[in-house]
Amino acid sequence: MIDDKLCSRLLSPLMQEVRMNMLAMAGVSDVEFQNGQICEVSSVKLNEVTVFQEALGEVSGRICLSFSKQVAINLSNKIMSKICGENANIKEFNEDAEEALKELLNIILGKATALLEQDNLGLIFEPPVISQDAEQMMEGASEVITAKASSSAIGDFDLLYVVK
Fold first, then answer.
1. CATH number at residue 82
2. Domain count, the chain
3. Of the candidates 134, 141, 139, the residue with the CA atom closest to the CA atom of residue 164
4. Closest by alpha carbon to 68, among 6, 161, 150?
5. Model confidence over 4-32: pLDDT tens digits?
6. Separation CA 76–CA 88 (nearest Å)
7. Residue 143 in this model has a pLDDT that exceeds 80
8. Which domain holds residue 78?
9. Which terminal CB of the chain, N or C, has fewer other CB atoms within 10 Å?
10. What is the average pLDDT across 58-70?
11. Is 1's pLDDT higher than 80?
12. Which of 6, 110, 106, 120 is CA-nearest to residue 53?
């Protein structure tokens, strides 16, 4: 069972790295998070596009960024534009958008690993995956830690830790 202290230990480094890497990779400087909260699985509604990585260790589960399709496209365009140095014009969610979001989460978790190790959580991450199947995402979950995020540059999204 997750308590408020563990919730904070898990989410704080993730929120910090989301902010830093949204700025570094996409030029998005205004990501604001609401306080994280522990939710029952049945109360969680995922958005249309979720990028996640399996986390194995003391608190096994899935670390997810969940977006509406439009927010996923907005963010992917910003990432691709920053990387390529020219304006990207992704109009629908496609393989390029998927790859951009997977790379973002991979970098976020790579950098958050050092912070999470300070709390001796012993987490190891699998490669990132994209899912548009909310049922698959919640499979085997016991509870979910969520933090709502907003940005005027890309829109609203969710950071989740789906605990198994």
1. 3.40.1550.10
2. 1
3. 141
4. 150
5. 888 888 999 999 999 999 999 999 999 99
6. 8
7. yes
8. 4-163
9. N
10. 94
11. no
12. 106
Quickly tell me which residue has 């950071």 as its tokens: 159
Residue with tokens 């830690």: 145
- Report residue 18 as tokens: 């989301």
Region 70-84: mean pLDDT is 94
Cα distances (Å, whole numbers) of residue 163 to 10, 29, 64, 119, 121? 11, 29, 11, 17, 13
Nearest one of 107, 96, 104 to 73, comparing CA atoms = 96
Structure tokens at 6: 């563990």
Return d(Cα 164, Cα 147) in angstroms, integer. Answer: 18
* Whole-angstrom distance, CA of residue 76 vs CA of residue 71: 8
Please state, rounded to an integer, the average pLDDT across all residues of the chain. Answer: 92
Q: How far apart are CA 53 and CA 161, in angstroms?
A: 10
What is the Cα–Cα distance from 68 to 28, expressed in whole angstroms?
Answer: 17
